[in-house]
Amino acid sequence: MTRKRKIDAREASLLALQRVEADDAYVNLALDEVLSSHSLDPRDKRLAAEITYGVITYKLTLDWLIEKVSGRPIKKLDKPIHQILRIGFYQLFYLDRVPPAAAVHATVELVKKGKKRGLAPFVNGVMRGALRKKDHLPWPDKKKDSANYLSVRYSHPLWLVRRWLNRYGPEEAEKLVAANNQAAPLSIRVNTLRTDRDTLLSELTAAGVEAVPSTVVPEGALLTRSGRLTELAPYREGRFQVQGESAMLTSRVLDPQAGDAVLDGCSAPGGKTTHLAQLMNNSGDILALDIHPHRLELVKANCRRMGVDIVRTQCLDAREIAKENPDSFDCILLDVPCSGFGVIRRKPDLKWRRSEDDIRKLAHVQCDMLKAAAAVLKPGGTLVYSTCTNEPEETDEVVEELLKNQDDMVPDDLRPYLPQDWQQDAGKTGIHLLPHIHGVDGFFISRLKKI
Ligand SMILES: C[S@@+](CC[C@H](N)C(=O)[O-])C[C@H]1O[C@@H](n2cnc3c(N)ncnc32)[C@H](O)[C@@H]1O
User: Fold this and answer.
1) Among 30, 149, 171, 177, fewest CB within 10 Å belongs to which?
2) Which domain holds residue 173?
3) 268 belongs to an annotated ligand binding site
4) Whose CA is nearest to atom 12 of ligand 1?
């Protein structure tokens, strides 16, 4: 067996970030790959993750600062040197626990390990310049050009900031982009088929993990001291699922009953499928579709782990449901693929991956999916349409399009399923949950009925 090469946190970050840039790799996969193929001590692993996600989150702000300090356009910087400076600047500007002198030293050392070691004096000069000018660097003018200010200050693409400024106005848009840069709370769903919340929370406490009851759903809990959750016995033995509160609320809004025939149109990895089964007391029938066979394996594994046996999986494009399954369903969940801008806190690379054009393309598919799902809903049945984004084209407009074309579908009041202080936020077509207002992932949930 070949020994794994030992590397430190900064080198691991550099390798992961280079993979993200060069191969368009997902940051979590790139980092996992680097960490598992090299030897690092646990502290360095944690620091590598913090730096890698931090650089992805703040890369636009970091580039602005690098340009201001170095006096050189980013495009003129050598690629590895550019990444190394981002890593160095992230530590200087955002990581209080790394002493500035250590950040400068580690950054210069990182250059010396690579092929461009001749550029070490340049990097040393830029890092020292950043240290000197740290508190006096200029930002774009907030009053004259608020879009550019928010984009640079909070590291979001300009086109997205412009959208949000138009929709929410300057104050709220600023709160939203600021919230997107904060760590998302970690929450779990208690599997009530196997245990109850109090018992699970005591079990977790014994394992060194602390959680408090969620106020959003009765089976939810918010972690206040986390650990390696998926390695714990209560996880392996299916007594809980890691899931956001907005996602948990979505299944609650559908409110399936024991014995129902349920369709989960976009089910993988099965977070909501297993929740639906739990709400149905594992009695009835759930048809779980997904277009990707390998992702359906995740649904099956989750069902097995959580003791759910009422789920049938089928690899199918949800738009084809009527052709393949002419049966009708009492309840349908359509948790569609979307731009995902509601979960930027958890997946910061999304904001750089997606374009405005993606929103239009996704909206098209979502409209077709909703139409197909409505066709297999029983009269009197309930359909929940949900997204982890709040862009109008993918949310209200998709629902409005359906309602415009189908007289038998009507919006249904979802307020009875919401926490009391959110009920006033429900609109005609559904509710928009937002991280800076509700403290949960950005989600849209719409409840519809067939008459
Ligand atoms: C937002 S995720 C669903 C998450 C899932 N409901 C959960 O809670 O775990 C969207 C899913 O839709 C699937 N998908 C994408 N296009 C699809 C299509 N045309 N038909 C069915 N599933 C599709 C994706 O593979 C992805 O697993």
Assistant:
1) 171
2) 146-180
3) yes
4) 266
